[in-house]
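Page 47, continued from p. 46.
Same chain as before, 19 aa.
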Amino acid sequence: MRAQTVRELSKRPKILSES
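Result:
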């Protein structure tokens, strides 16, 4: 995962569902 993605995960838990 990219550092940017990690930040997005913290901001948007919805991404966790997409992954």
